[in-house]
């Protein structure tokens, strides 16, 4: 990948100052902010039970596969419970992730993005000095395959974090592949048609840190976007919610269940499923009281792969919806634009007249 982003100041540091107003650079137009509507009557994303999906009881398994299919097709998002990742590993990761943002300034500096890179502390998708910024710091890291890690950042992360991360990253890769296989079952196609893109896959991780904000209604923690890769597995670190997804024109807050992963479909998986499982726009809001931390693990196809819909999903009645593009070109194109809804994936769509 060949991506870069303009260096920006730390919002965590900014939020420590006694501010009553947020600086202009973070103030968005009303339609880009997240004024909350009446949220009590809104539906919630489906909850999928991984243990049922693996059950030897074929009735139970079949029923949960139908639920998975519905969740992926209609929501593009679900919460996964009984996912089998040990709760002690999750607790370690939560603690390590918090500790990362508690590092002394000097230690954090060593892990700050370098000019021309997007790994480490900083932001991605910042292409001009005029661009409005989000009320968040992020820490971005390539974890798999190991040869794509950036030693300058990877080898500098605190050792306990790195040790737990190695296990977490391997476990989440296994989980992601299994979920993708189950999606192929749900789509009634040969799992190889989907899993071959991920042989082995690419895994990146982002720790999002949203400090409290004196004017939360004027900013956004993370602008509306769809994720670029295959599958995103998100762990919310505490009980402060903030993630919202766009469904049928409405913003629906996700109330993170304890011990669950929030999983969503990325743009590349939308291509592979020929649009049957769509990536969904989502964003993160902030509040004036408490910081919020989330750990997103992105699992995407192999960098050598060429993206195209799975052959069995392309039929006379359901022609290919997306042009072929290499994974590398897709990543590069995605990171070369500002985050804006699903605009990048839409460029890949084949229009009615075949263009
Ligand atoms: O913080 C969240 O809940 C959302 C994070 C997210 O969408 C991302 O990192 O792509
Ligand atoms: Fe996302």
Describe this structure in words.
By secondary structure, this protein is an alpha+beta fold. The protein has one domain: Jelly Rolls, CATH 2.60.120. Helix content is 30%, strand content 19%. It is built from eleven helices and 14 strands. It has helices at residues 11-16, 50-53, 58-75, 87-102, 105-110, 151-154, 159-186, 192-195, 267-272, 327-335, 343-347; strands at residues 47-49, 77-81, 120-122, 137-144, 202-210, 222-225, 231-236, 243-247, 250-253, 261-265, 282-284, 292-300, 306-307, 325-326. The strands form three sheets. It has an eight-stranded mixed beta sheet with strand order 1-2-10-7-12-5-4-3. A four-stranded antiparallel beta sheet has the order 6-11-8-9, with no helix packed on it. It is globular and about 60 Å long. Bound molecules: 2-oxoglutaric acid (AKG) and fe (ii) ion. Fe (ii) ion binds next to loops.
